Amino acid sequence: MKNTAKFILDLTWVCLFIVLFPLVATASEGEVTFSELAKEANIVIRSEETVFTVHSLSSGTTRFKTTITILNENGNNRAKLYVPYDKLSKVNYVKGTSFDKVGKKIKSLKNSDLKDVSYMNDFSLFEDNRLKIANLEYNIYPYTVEFEYEVTSRNMMFYPRWRPQDQENLSVEKATFEVLMPTGMKLRYLESNLLKKAEVSNTGPQERYLWEVKNLKPVETEPYGPSFEELVPQVLTAPTEFEVDGYKGSMATWKDLGIWQNKLNQGRDVLPQETVQKLKQLTANAKDPEEKVRLVYDYLQGKTRYVSIQLGIGGWQPFEANFVDTKGYGDCKALTNYTKAMLQAVGVNSIYALIKAGDDVADIKTDFPSSQFNHVILCVPMPQDTMWLECTSQTEAAGYNGTNTGDRHALLITPEGGKLVKTTIYKATDNKQIRSIKVKLDEKGSGVASVSTLYTGSQQETRDGVVHYLKPEEQRKWLYEQVKAPPFEISKYDFVQKKDRVPSITENLELSLTKCATMSGKRMFVSPNLMSKWTYAPHQKEQRLTDVVRKSAFLDVDTVEIEVPVGYAVEYLPREVSHKSPFGEYKAAVKVDGQRVTYIRTMQMHKGRFKPDDYAKLVEFFNNVIKADAEQAVFVKNVP
């Protein structure tokens, strides 16, 4: 009753808000009402206007104005406005006003209310990125905030990305995006999920592009579905010609963008002769180019550390190799350029490469040349394949992309210009978890276990951080939190790491297990799957709307040997099972030889994109795995 009363009260306030708040219009026939937009929403954007005016190749202004109704505490994030700026941009003004549920003004922002803070992160040494923050949070719902700001930029490498519906549980009553270009300057744009395309008109001195959306109800992502970005209306814009801090360029093609980056990099790869001689001595006995790369990469990791340096054109132009060699630090651009210079000194060619980094982030839009990158890595072509070097890491294995930069497009900055290539694609057999467990049980169902697990590829990434960044006492605590097994105490543990193209970590554990088996009278119930039980299956849906997307592939193999006490005989063994689906395969089998039970479980999952109709097969597959993983073997004690 209490929850029902709260719902009626909330609904009453929403209805009252619709009647009293002056910005709300009555819906005409065929339109969507505010009440409909408020269903399943935390936030309703009542109106939003974004106007981007390009003045020249090197200057532009963005004006933004919005009115947002916050329906509950989960929408409070939109009562804060963050306006970034830096050396190449200026915030002309920020305004804000809030209103209560009946439309009465709560507060108008004063300049003194704005916070101006550094956008510096933990890895930054020099950075001119800053934020102006306006906060109009209120604690009685619903309430409305209005924000308006204007920013002038001298960095015209970036034009706006318009995505009015940018989070779940958010509705949009009306939003517009307008771009004003000087006549003769070409705007490039890429539209997605729009019912209405751009309206283009000419006003004489300016070309006008206008997009509009109305009555967008909340969009909800589905389990194993496409990213939110893929489901909502969006417009990407980009220049053809641009200028940043005196450097003119073009991004009409990927080749052109690479030519511009080449200008920034030119002449910045010179090393001191002393360092060149040191590198030649270091690699003098290397048997092949790959060994030279590994030796130079080890030298880099031991000599340098990563810091972020973002000052004006320094956001795209690397510090000189000589600077990094002297100081021992740099950002991704500087460290990559430095590594390139060192490899060049020992006769190994490599290529500076722009990439969009991040665990399982969406790839760039390859058909829309523009600045979509946030990171720089190094490409080292080899006779058989390509090595990729993450030059900011002091622990990464040479040649490993992993989840941060693997399976996506990078822009190689070649002497001829930019060239798109794909980074390493990792298969299920690259991302393995191969586990061997030996357990000896006593008559109370407790036991001791020896566990050795080999992790490779993406499955070793978390443990790589544990090995390098946690102290022994922290490692032990982490293992207690992460190891999934019957109640246990860790007697001993260690990690053994190998830094190959596909790196690996072997985790060795000695465990004391309590309640490893369940005792009931003269029977002993044993779950042979001790540490790899699958527990999650998404809910079945009557109608799946979007594709099924699996972003990772892996292979898990468990071999478990359990020695049961003398005097116990098998009463029941789980049957051998095998399940196949478009998404993966699963096998499990149990065998008994005297007092020894051997359980072998194999689960391999594929990555890829599948039709919505296949979703039911995924749910069925996971439910079958959960059921098989929960099976128990039963032993009975022979009573004389």
Automatic annotation (TrEMBL):
Every DUF3857 domain range: 59-219
Record Pfam families: DUF3857
SUPFAM superfamilies, sorted: Cysteine proteinases
Domain of life: Bacteria
Sections of the chain in a coiled coil: none
Entry protein name: DUF3857 domain-containing protein
Source organism (scientific name): Pontibacter rugosus
